[in-house]
Structure formats: structure tokens, C-alpha cells
Amino acid sequence: MGPRKIIVAVALAIALAAGVFVAARHQAPVAPTSALALPVPKPVPAFSLLNQHGEPVDQSVFEGQWDLVFFGFTHCPDICPTTLQVLAAAKKALAEQGHETVPRIVLVSVDPERDSPEVLGQYIDYFGDGNLGLTGSLEEIRKLTGGLGIFFEKQAGDGENYSVDHSAAVLVIDPDGGFHSVFSGQHVVDNFVHDLPILMDDR
């Protein structure tokens, strides 16, 4: 083989290799950048609570749709309203992008003394339609939080002027009612918009 043919052959080999590399990059699976997916979804523990309409619900309320579950309270001064606003904005963005699967926002109160179903309902309505609020006895709330690794603790205060420390994680529950994945740390709209379609396999 002459020098010219060798050069042509090498050029073709390089082009072919580059093409394979580009194709491999395009076919590579996309992974979440912020959320942590559990290797196997964990069943949500059994509980008995009330929704914002005062109706009794149990763990089956998480079946049939994807849910973004946040544990907080209506008197929360900053973390709770900020997080719920981020989730609402992410839902809106996913819908505007044409995704068929858009998760429901769920707020579980860790302050049932002040968060009656009516109070909770009025609060979550600020963050859009179709949201779910859950409240009830501390015993039943702890069944849910304990099984999902969520921390909360009431702080000392004067009368109703108290606060509640709580985890800031947002849990993703799959349509089978399984704890599927978790967003922790600082919550940013773009992180949810990027990761949720991957987690829900809707892209």
C-alpha cells in the first residue's frame, strides 16, 4: 500500500472512530444531576391522616401518580414557602415543555397543633391547583416521617409562637407508592426540571 493510500485509510479510520464516539455519546443514558434515586423504591409506611378536606387517607393516597413530598408547616417563615414555590415553578415549566407526566405537590404538616385541614388547604392553594395537604395526629405523622427518614422537632416558644425544625428534603414517590428518590440541599427550579423527567422516564 502506497503512502497516499495509507494516509487515506488512516483518515477513514479516524473519521469512523469519531463517528462511533459521537453516536455513543448521543446514546449514552442521561442521569440525574441533583436527585439521588434509591436502588429499589422503598414502600411508604402505613399511616392514617387527614387531607386538606378533612377526609381520612392512608398510604394508598400516594398511588396512581408521581408525588413531590415535602414536610413542613404553614407558619414556617422561609424554607417552606420558598421550597413550595420552587416546586410550583418546576411543575409549570414541565407542563409548558409538553411533558405528559407532571408530579403532584404534597405538603405533610409537622405542626398539626396549628395546621388544621382548613388552614393547610388554604396554604397549599397559594402554590397552584391539585396540591395535596396532609395533617393529623403527631403519632401518625411520626409513623410516616420515621419510616422515610425525615426529622422534625418542635422548639420552645410562648404559646403558639414557636417554630419547628425539620428536614428540607423533597421526596419523590412513584405511582406504586414507593419512595423512589430524594432531592436534598438547596432547591433550584432547574434541578427539578432536568431530573424529574429522567426519574419518571418521561422525556
Would you mind describing this structure in some detail?
The structure is a single chain. The protein has 203 residues and is α+β, with helices and mostly antiparallel strands. The chain folds into 2 domains: 1-30; 36-199, Glutaredoxin (3-Layer(aba) Sandwich). 36% of the residues lie in helices and 23% in strands. It has an 8-stranded mixed sheet, sandwiched between helices. The chain has a two-stranded antiparallel sheet with strand order 7-8.
SSE series: HEEEEHEHEHEEEEH
Number of helices: 5
Overall pLDDT metric: 88
Number of strands: 10
Largest beta-sheet details: 8 strands, mixed
> CATH homologous superfamily of the largest domain, by name?
Glutaredoxin
- Tell me the strand order in the biggest sheet: 1-10-9-4-5-6-2-3
As for the CATH topology of the largest domain, it is Glutaredoxin
Domain count, please report it: 2
Shape: globular
Poorly predicted regions are: 3-28
The rounded Rg comes to 23 Å
Produce a short descriptive summary.
By secondary structure, the protein is of the alpha+beta class. Helices cover 36% and strands 23% of the residues. The chain has five helices and ten strands; from the N terminus they run αββββαβαβαββββα.
What characteristics describe this protein?
single chain, 203 residues, alpha+beta, Glutaredoxin, eight-stranded mixed β-sheet, two-stranded antiparallel ribbon, globular
Draw up the topology in text.
Elements: H1 3-27, E1 36-43, E2 48-51, E3 56-58, E4 67-72, H2 79-96, E5 104-109, H3 117-124, E6 132-135, H4 138-148, E7 152-154, E8 164-166, E9 170-173, E10 178-183, H5 189-199
Parallel strand pairs: 4-5, 5-6
Antiparallel strand pairs: 1-10, 2-3, 2-6, 4-9, 7-8, 9-10
Helix pairs in contact: 2-5
